User: Fold these one by one.
Assistant:
Number 1:
Amino acid sequence: MDFDVGARLRAIREAKALSQRELARRAGVTNGTISLIEQNQSSPSVASLRKVLQGIPMTLAEFFSQETPPPDQIVFRPDELAELTNEIQRRNEGAISFRQVGDTSRHGLQILHETYAPGADTGRTMLAHASEEGGIVISGQIELTVDTTRYVLGPGDSYLFDSKRPHRFRNPFDAPCVIVSACTPPYL
């Protein structure tokens, strides 16, 4: 089932009694950007959607959540992970999938099962946020840039850094890359 990003954003914005212009002002984007997303004429990147949702404020996990796991749930099966990206983003070339374990509103740690298709990129604008993050490459390869240094990581390689440092993940390789990562406090 496809997740309708535009309809979801419009419903949340209207429930918060925000105009497109006010949400755009709060998020630091143009009101045209909000309009295009709501009309499904633009499929925002994870970073762009996160920026828009900060104007509400709301996390990506809350935005994409269909149902909340029970508070005492300890074990999560693969089909119980919350997908933080929409179906269109996952189908497009260069798609990224972030599947989250549990509900980050109940925990100070975010654990993700990440998949980067060939050509996937978190964006030319480097990410930076008040967290620490680490991960282990399970399969494939990923190019990680932190500050101005690029690293190529393969299966079994891992990373750990202060997320306030500008960083970017990119898969310029021919095979998908799968990473299991953690971030505290939660970022997405």
Number 2:
Amino acid sequence: MEATLCSFSSSSKPHPLSLRPQSLTLTLKSPTLVCKPRRRSLPFVRAAISRTKKEETVDNVKQQLESCYLIAGIRYTGFTVKQFQDLRGTLPDTVKLIVAKNTLVGKAIEGTAWEALKPCMKGMNAWLFVHTEEIPAALKPYREFQKERKLDDNDFTGAVFEGRFYAPDEFKVLETLPSREEIYAKLLGALQGPSISLVSTLQAPARELVLTLKAYVQKLEEQSTPA
């Protein structure tokens, strides 16, 4: 677009400094548009990171399920970071403590015998994965920690052992299971003692009998294996 401006002297005689009619041309240029690559929105990036973390948590739980003998839930509400770190320090290497959402743990145990754990998936839980047959010894550190720190509200929310769900009021059964040495001693005494001792053993609760026979079979296998 062009515009022309004209100027004239008001005197009949031309003034020495008068300006002759002149024209001034102005050229207006359209602004140049610079196209920049569109950046992905921050919410999209956050969603991708969150999804990745969830997948990592599910995979971590699945790894813990391998060679796991017991899983127990602990009410996590009210725990401080310091308390959680201290608790982890009291646990043996055979016990792992993980904080994970119920939905993620539920996804990891879906289709497995650990699905029996679902009744305790309420509120916030920390999950105890026990990788040893010595169940009482594995649960004892948390009981002592709970008593020492006066964490009465942070009790066990439930557990699964050998495919069965144990409610909080049934944990005494888990915490008083016989150790391997006790099973061996009891079986040996039953086999060496009078027949009435063996009969008493056979009349014991089914679970205790299974543990006793299992330990005896394992012992025989170990003895028959060449060095």
Number 3:
Amino acid sequence: MNVILTIVLAVQMLSALGMIGLILVQHGKGADMGAAFGSGGSGSLFGASGSANFLSRTTAVLAGIFFVCTLALAYFGNLRAPSAGGGSVLDGAAPVTAPAASGAAAQIPVTAAPSAAPASAAVAPVPAAPASGAGQIPTK
């Protein structure tokens, strides 16, 4: 299975590089207008109109190969059995631990939130000013 994936990936990369090269070699639609008025751009290896057909068709074939290889890679990528723990990559992620505080961060007091507060516990006071920045705007 790995050999097939490697071959398909290599064909996809070669077709992508071929498409890039062919697209850069082709001239735009506006270049034909300059050739009509004698700019000398009409003389080419394949003739006046032969290069457009050859390069366009070759680009289309390479685009089709690239598309088929992309679909094959997506199909083979989904054939792998999901892990026993679940289908998500995040399920197997290691928990993040906080690093030890050093420098200025060590001076900030940390209060742990109680897991089960009794009913008679004091409630934190509500701030008098709203938490928006409206109080920061100077008035005239």
Number 4:
Amino acid sequence: MIRTDAKRGALVLFSGGQDSTTCLAWALERYETVETLGFDYGQRHRVELECRDSVRQAIVDAFPHWAERLGEDHMIDLSVLGAISDTAMTREIQIEAAANGLPNTFVPGRNLMFMTIASAIAYRRGLSVLVGGMCETDFSGYPDCRDDTMKALQVALNLGMDSRFVVETPLMWLDKADTWRLAQDLGGDALVELVRVETHTCYVGERAELHDWGFGCGECPACRLRKRGYEAFLAGEQVTQPA
């Protein structure tokens, strides 16, 4: 049974991708008021930002009981982050491992900035829950996706704003197959299909061909993970990202 906490309002970090869309559905099932927040930081795959409106509208059309809970959308220009980043997410360079062992898709400070800005907006909007799609199970080792980072950030935000924010990361301990399963648990086959067709995850922004698992190049780490997760979901298995 899905738990509800209608007394609280939530702000969801919403990129237009699979994970954030699943988190949006998760929040809509729980909270009376749910707003969304996106960031344009000069990402190479900024086509995901173009998917945000269509995903939100598809949710409204397919799930009337969630439509009345879906509130305002906020878009923040965070181009300064792209300007100071030299990564495969913000530059037309090959995706590969960096000298520190992390993939060069890591954008230093990204989630720290995202959550800090989210808390400022939530403070102004009277929302007490911040929801993000960070995950430590099938991630690429990004330190700002780790559970310890999110817990520490929650403490810092509450101290700095004298508030009682709760940082929720519903995907933290799920692999990609589990993320597909969560979508099905929340909205059945209709939500799975919405995620498959409407969302975007591909790091290089390829959206020309619709595969069984969704749009994408099929070769970048995000596409490979999404594809394996979808296939494992259909087969009733689990899949995690290889080392």
